Amino acid sequence: MTGMPQKRPDLSAPLIVGFGVTGRAVATALVAHDARPTIIDDRPSDEAIEVARRLGLELIAAPTAEQVESAVDASSVLL
């Protein structure tokens, strides 16, 4: 929409759901812009776990329903 101000998402506490190729790319871009996303993935690969570790990010593997609810509640935006 031309002329409309664009609202930027609040990236203070992003939550990435899934850490496959796209999730990793999003996380890398966010870290490059000084954001610190939390990641949840039901079955992360060893490679995904290593990428999260290298980026210094929390990866919640095979989260329980309570962990998902808590992560969502603490997030500013879901990605």
Describe the model:
- It is a single chain.
- Strand 1 (14-17), helix 1 and strand 2 form a beta-alpha-beta unit.
- The protein is globular.
- The two termini are 23 Å apart.
- It has helices spanning 21-32, 46-55, 65-74; strands spanning 14-17, 38-41, 59-61, 77-78.
- The protein has three helices and four strands.
What is the β-strand count? Answer: 4
By oligomeric state, this entry counts as single chain
Number of helices: 3
Helicity range of the residues?
Answer: 40-55%
Poorly predicted sequence stretches spanning 5 or more consecutive residues: none
The mean pLDDT is: 94
Give the strand order of the largest sheet, numbering strands 1, 2, ... along the chain.
Answer: 3-2-1-4
* Secondary-structure class: alpha/beta
The general outline is globular
The end-to-end distance, rounded to whole angstroms, is 23 Å
- Main sheet summary: 4 strands, parallel
